[in-house]
Design brief:
The chain is mainly α and 223 residues long. Helices cover 79% and strands 0% of the residues. Helix 6 packs across helix 8 and helix 8 runs antiparallel to helix 10.
């Protein structure tokens, strides 16, 4: 490489590393913040709390997130990104309904198991009236929900599933799967153990999938 080419490449490399390092640090801060918001709620969380848990000064953290609302927005954006990615998997009328819905339930339960704090932050925002994030939920969730409903309508028209209110079926799936994150404390108290196990999630999957598939089953004509 010529001296000129090397000289021009070095600043680009430094900029790239700086961007990567910043992205990683912002992601690390958000990963700490999601648990603090889940434990304390938006009002009960301070930038100082998050900074202390992240091992940063408040001033340093605010260089990346200038306000608590900006940090909260980042946390909820990431939660919704993952949540919507699972909704998008449904919007394919060419697939078999049973396979798609089984995979959807599995994905939703996996999210509840692997990211319970993220699920709880989202639930707390919704329960409190979605005052800070309602516009984003409407603008991003509603279009995908409509696409999913259109797919159900195509399945119904093709005789692949029984006539059903797809909106309320999806509401029911959300409630059943997300409860294993949002209300896990109640579940472990009832079960008299410290935490939910993989077997609990496997058992939940079987029950929920069976209920959903029974709801969409096309009635067989009498012989």
């Amino acid at each position: 490489m010529s001296t000129i080419a090397r000289a021009s490449a070095e600043p680009v490399a430094k900029i790239s590393r700086r961007v990567l390092n910043r992205d990683k640090l912002e992601a690390d801060i958000a990963a700490v913040a999601v648990r603090v918001f889940a434990e304390c709620g938006y009002e009960g969380t301070s930038i100082a709390d998050v900074a202390e848990r992240a091992g940063l000064s408040k001033q340093n953290l605010m260089y990346y997130y200038p306000s608590k609302q900006a940090l909260y927005q980042r946390v909820l954006d990431e939660v919704l990104d993952e949540w919507l990615a699972r909704m998008e998997s449904l919007a394919d009328a060419t697939q078999e309904p049973a396979d798609m819905l089984r995979a959807y339930v599995q994905a939703k339960l996996r999210f509840s198991r692997e990211q319970p704090w993220a699920s709880r932050v989202y639930a707390m925002e919704v329960i409190s009236g979605a005052q800070l994030y309602g516009a984003q939920i409407q603008s991003r969730v509603v279009p995908l929900l409509r696409k999913d409903i259109e797919v159900f309508e195509q399945w119904i028209a093709a005789g692949k599933v029984a006539p059903i209110n797809a909106t309320h079926l999806l509401f029911a799936i959300w409630a059943m799967t997300q409860s294993y994150a949002d209300f896990s404390t109640q579940m472990v108290l009832v079960l008299n153990r410290k935490q939910l196990t993989k077997k609990d999630f496997d058992d939940a999957e079987k029950v929920i999938v069976n209920m959903v598939l029974a709801a969409i089953q096309v009635p067989q004509p009498c012989p």
